[in-house]
Each structure stands twice: as structure tokens, then as C-alpha cells.
Amino acid sequence: MKVLQTIISYRVLLPIGLLLIIIYSFQRVNNFIKIRGIMKEHVKIFGGSRFQILFFFGVPVLFATSFVQLSDFNQDAFNTLYVVITILITMFFSILTVLAGYKNEEDEQYEIVLKETRSSILFELIVSIYITIYAFVFQVVIDVIDLVVKSILSWILYYMIFFLLLNMFIVIKRYKILDEIQQ
Predict the structure, then answer these.
(1) pLDDT above 70 covers what percent of the chain?
(2) Are residues 88 and 164 in contact, defined by beta-carbon separation less than 8 angstroms?
């Protein structure tokens, strides 16, 4: 009976659920969630520049490490996060709608930037959705986990938030290029 209780406890089921979402998202053959391809398209934007990759993937490590030393996530932070993420998701979908009307088949460079911009926005949407799922699970278990685990989970959430925010500069830059060419 004790083994069955352990198997069906949140300590086993939640990590398995999160792990399955991640594994399923990155499968090669996947008809529903093609995150692997979107991630490849996003990394391709950096053009092999290791400095840019290090900057956009590494700087959030610095911020996350600093913030987790200042404060672990709490209920107020979750409420603020949900409001901000909801606004960002709405904004990303709105930008995708606007981009659907952009076309310039005569200019090949424009079409490349348009595709990269769409990929960046889709990537940001995926990160936003992952943050929402992760934060929801974290918020549910926050009162029953020990301090070390809470700090580790807070660090991961801070990392994802700063990663999302920093990568928004890529979307802004690409959108500005498209807008200038369009005029």
C-alpha cells in the first residue's frame, strides 16, 4: 500500500508529467507540438555567432542567480507573473496576426526576415506557455517543498522569465526591420 501511495503521489506524478511534456515537445516526429523545429529556426537566427548565443542564453543565468539570492518566488510574484505572461501571449498572437498580412515576394531578404520573425515569435510563445505551465505546478507545490528545492525551482523560473524577456529584443529588432522595409 505504501508503494502505491508513493507512486501516485505528487512527488512522482508532477515531475513525470513535466518530463513527458518536455520529451514529447522535442520528439523528431510530432504532429502537434513541433518545438524542435521552431527551436532550430530560432537558433539559426544567430548565424553561428557564439557570442550572441552565449549572450541570449547565458545572461539569464546571471540574472536568475542574482534574483534567487534576493528572493524566492512567492504567491504575489506568481500573480504578477500570470498577468504579465497573459499580456505577452496576447501581444505575440497579435503580432503574428499583423505579420500574416506582410508579404513581399519580390524581395527574398524580406521573406527571410519575415520567416525568422515568425519563428522568433512562435519561440517566444512556446517559452511563455512553458513558463505558465511550470509556474502553475510550482505554485501548487510551493508550500510543501523544502527550502533548497524551492530555491532551485525559483532559479529555473527566473531563468525562463529573463530568457523570455531578453529574447524579446530579437523580436523587436526583426519587427522593426520588416516595418522599415514595408514602408
Answers:
(1) 90
(2) yes
